[in-house]
């Protein structure tokens, strides 16, 4: 059984009249075990491969190879299926037309699946919403799947669907399964794929070189198979009269959870966190309380990790009003760090959006701020990726110039990496 | 015998000599005041309430039963011999050798003195939330409003007998309650009661733990060593002075014991104690916690004199109000703790001439009502506000609530002993009496309650006198410092009536010149 622990980092002291409490809660999971092995229920995996015409011969060949590697890494007993997608969604494996649309992995089914993948041809358009809807239908065709995960590969824009159709499909799939999405080449839209990954509790990244695809798929599937905790919830209790300003996951990536919560009871919201392996995630909780008099102490939030009805760990976010400025003026380093990292993520995204729209002035300001924040918070990955997009004159003051003739892949890599955060500790 | 000498210097009959600056002469030959010594019934109270269930204090001899005429002391269950009153109590019966059932108690008491309290362990999570009445979770916070569950340490009450009760409260501004209180009393009103208040110095470490350990240690000594048997008033006073000093040392030992060896800021606390013995009040203090006598009729008194910078300034001629609100007003010049050089308390005794109240309190209360008359007004309002049938603890709660309403800038402790009838607590008509005038003309005769038959209060002539002619030490007007060599300058106002009063006590004054050192206890702004 997985062990969850939590640590709260905050300055609980508020000045007289202070109302806003900020805290970072680190939730750590150990002993998660392998997916489907710890009695938490059956696991389903679907590999979705873009087979549109734009893939071309080489990308298609490497994508097939990547999908086969992924199949090889599916653990015995895991329910799985392969989807081939263009402007329609096909089910190349298992080859059934109705009934249960997934099979359990063993040497024979894995072999059959790889044979089916080998027959892929690139042709047609792109309708990612349809792929997602098929994945949902397949997962639902197997009763009792507790942990559902898909790997999605695409190389282009969602040409054959309206944004509304894609949004409807995403909404249809929220809470149903998780998706790790990867883009190959530079013709896909980061914004579009990020929306899918964020809504479906997964990750988004660019695979800059087609030759990296097999390795990326292997890693993705291995990670998925190492998530022994099927589905966990972050629960946040706040006192009567309090207001949740925001709840964010801030590590390993920045994800705003505020609007994703469902009420457990009038004072407790539950936020889905998906499956867990041996890992730790950080959450930033901001609560507004009615001010109390100096000397009073109260709880601002109970932050819990729960599986089903069981609360496995709880962190207490406190508020203590004091008139000692040496206590109240201090900002928790963790809170400051992640506040900076969150701002970094939005500075990069807004800067790149402005650049794409031709607003060089805003782009320069935003990306300058980004390089400043990346430097301050020690985010070396963001710093090096930013340097490929802007000429840095002075990182400390955020003085930059936009580079001319920037490689599109570098921009996209910067965009997809924008939400990745570094930790203050370690 | 140094205690005896020191004590006798401040006996009431020395008052005039002292005021006349004649203190040094013949200080040892003057006898204690005349007075009738009555043996104290050896009744022991039932177990006392205590802030921590693990620290439940039960004084030796818990077999008290009201009015059945049986021997009051504890008897050996095997042979029926009464155990001798000695401290520490004997663990076995001297006659038959059988093990004493309550033998474990002294050890428990010793433990309660020395045990380091874990403040978190005192939290009882399942009590309803004090703020909203909601359920309190196991994590110590309310499940509805999030308020921190009041720990027993933050707010506790003791009521060992109907006539003795108190409340110790964290106040509004402080994060923890560094005040402490420990009470003990027999059920017979005004016969035997102990009230101890210690105020932990907030700038020192672990003073909340130290103050409670100190108060309980002092209480244990005072309860366990009250004069027994026949004796003269003189020997009794001397013994009580000795015991008070000893209780102060015990409190100091407990405070020191609770201090971590590597603590750079040793825990420290004040000390104020009142012992009611057969209708007389013996008191002692160190620091700025106070003992007041608030009579139903007559002028209320502050019995103790603070060891504080404010008091030193008052002695130097600064008006009280200015001194108590000026810079460093809350710095005390004596305290208990590892870094204290002088733990000899000022001791004194007072023979009440009529029914009234003994109040032992911390500065959390008197910050808002320093003058004895002001404190009595607070008490009278609390009596009026506490709906009958009220207990002393209810009255103390009202007084604490009043101090909190004034701001509650410091921890607040109010410990009360009622000397006289308890009727005003149950009679609505009496409870509505407000104002000093109403009380001043109130009944002073002994209550019909048979329990008070042996306590005769004689109404002194000055009891109905106006406030201006009554004894009101310490003087608010610029006057002499309480040093014998300087005492000849002028007697404080109001001494005339005092000298006519039957054996009035006088607040004892320290013999040392100015403050030896200063501990800052700044209240939060």
Quick summary:
The complex is a heterodimer of chains A (426) and B (525). Chain A has 426 residues and is of the alpha+beta class.
Q: How would you describe what is shown here?
A:
The complex is a heterodimer of chains A (about 425) and B (about 525). Chain A is α+β, with helices and mostly antiparallel strands and about 425 residues long. Chain A folds into three domains: about 5-35 and about 230-330, Sandwich (Immunoglobulin-like), CATH 2.60.40.3670; about 40-225, von Willebrand factor, type A domain (Rossmann fold, 3-Layer(aba) Sandwich); about 335-415, Four Helix Bundle (Hemerythrin (Met), subunit A) (Up-down Bundle), CATH 1.20.120. Chain A has eleven helices and 20 strands. In chain A, the strands form four sheets. In chain A, strands 4, 5, 6, 7, 8, 9 and 10 form a seven-stranded mixed sheet that branches. A six-stranded mixed sheet of chain A has the order 2-18-17-11-15-14, with no helix packed on it. Chain A has a five-stranded antiparallel sheet with strand order 1-3-16-12-13, covered by helices on one side. In chain A, helix 1 (about 55-70) runs antiparallel to helix 2 (about 105-115), helix 1 runs parallel beside helix 6 and helix 3 (about 130-140) packs parallel to helix 4 (about 165-175). The model of chain A has no long low-confidence stretch (mean pLDDT about 95). Chain B is of the alpha+beta class and about 525 residues long. Chain B folds into two domains: about 1-50 and about 155-500, 4-Layer Sandwich (Phosphatase 2c, domain 1), CATH 3.60.40; about 120-150, no CATH class. Chain B has helices at about 1-10, 15-20, 105-115, 205-225, 235-255, 310-315, 320-325, 365, 370-385, 390-405, 430, 435-440, 495-500, and strands spanning about 155-160, 165-170, 180-185, 190-200, 270, 270-275, 280-285, 290-295, 300, 335, 345-350, 355-360, 410-420. In chain B, strand 6 and strand 7 form a beta hairpin. In chain B, helix 3 (about 105-115) runs antiparallel to helix 4 (about 205-225) and helix 4 (about 205-225) packs antiparallel against helix 5. The longest helix of chain B is centred in the middle third of the chain and has 25 residues, at about 235-255. Chain B is globular and about 60 Å long. The relative contact order of chain B is 0.14. Mean pLDDT of chain B is about 65; it is low at about 1-70, about 105-125 and about 425-525. Chains A and B meet through strand 17 and strand 18 of A and loops of B.
